[in-house]
Amino acid sequence: MPQLVKLGPVPMSLIYIDDGPKIVYTEEWIDGKSLREIIKSQGRVPVSDVLRMAIDMTKAIETLWSVSKIHRDVKPENIIRRSDGSFVLLDLGFALDLDDISLTGSDKICGTVPYYSPEQTNPANKRKLDFRSDLYSLGVVMLEALTGSNPFLPRDGSIEETVRSIQTKEIRRPLNIRDVSPDLETLVLRLLAKEPHLRFRSCKMLLDSLNMIKEGMVGESG
Fold first, then answer.
1. Residue 155 has pLDDT above 80, yes or no
2. With 90 as the cut, is the pLDDT of residue 95 above it?
3. Are 114 and 155 in contact (CB under 8 A)?
4. Residues 6+ apart with CB under 8 A from 29
5. CATH of 32-221, one of 1.10.510.10, 2.60.40.420, 3.30.360.10, 1.10.530.10
6. For this structure, is 183 an active site residue?
7. Domain coordinates of the chain in residue numbers?
8. Residue 20: which region, alpha, beta or left (left: phi > 0; alpha: psi -120 to 50)?
């Protein structure tokens, strides 16, 4: 699966240090730029690149879910664009295997707060998360790539305010910030629905929608 990073020569293993268990592993080196670097340098990423990134990330999320895993940390820093323009998802250290035991306590949340799904903000939901949580995080990444900013970062930068924003804030329509197609706007807002059942019911449905938008762009340019 080219959309997922491969493990390096040091296999994933569990070690114990003073503050508890830690996962140690290596990943393959990928020559490219992170989406974070791209956003910093460009501000707003071209729509065609956002669509390609979203398609590649959806395939990565789908692959993980096919083996009962969720990534839990989909964010610009963990997405690399290769020299050929394709994108790969890094850092499987936070991936949760729903068929295995948890390494973190029931009161611990893994991931990066501004990219949490609403259900991910509650530690009690950890074993109930599914691929739709990763799809929500992807929606946040898409909106940030399209507009140049994360919609949930408060002015004071506090974790508490960020979590409250994720749980309650209504997202501004992307068309109010940038001229994107109504279909793309609808797709992003659907990914950012507060309730999982209001998002896409499968990764395939999302992929089909993304490809339709991409093909429509090609038709318009032709």
1. no
2. no
3. no
4. 8
5. 1.10.510.10
6. no
7. 32-221
8. left
Nearest residue to 180 (alpha-carbon basis) of 146, 218, 220: 146
Q: What pLDDT band is residue 25 in, cutting at 50, 70 and 90?
A: very low
Catalytic residue among 49, 56, 73, 100: 73
What are the φ and ψ backbone dihedral angles of 88, each rounded to 5 degrees?
Answer: -135, 145
Single out the residue of 11, 145, 163 nearest to residue 79, CA to CA: 145
pTM of this structure: 0.85
Type of residue found at 148: G
CA torsion angle for 41, 43, 47, 53 (degrees, to 10)?
A: 60
Distance CA 144, CA 152 (A): 10
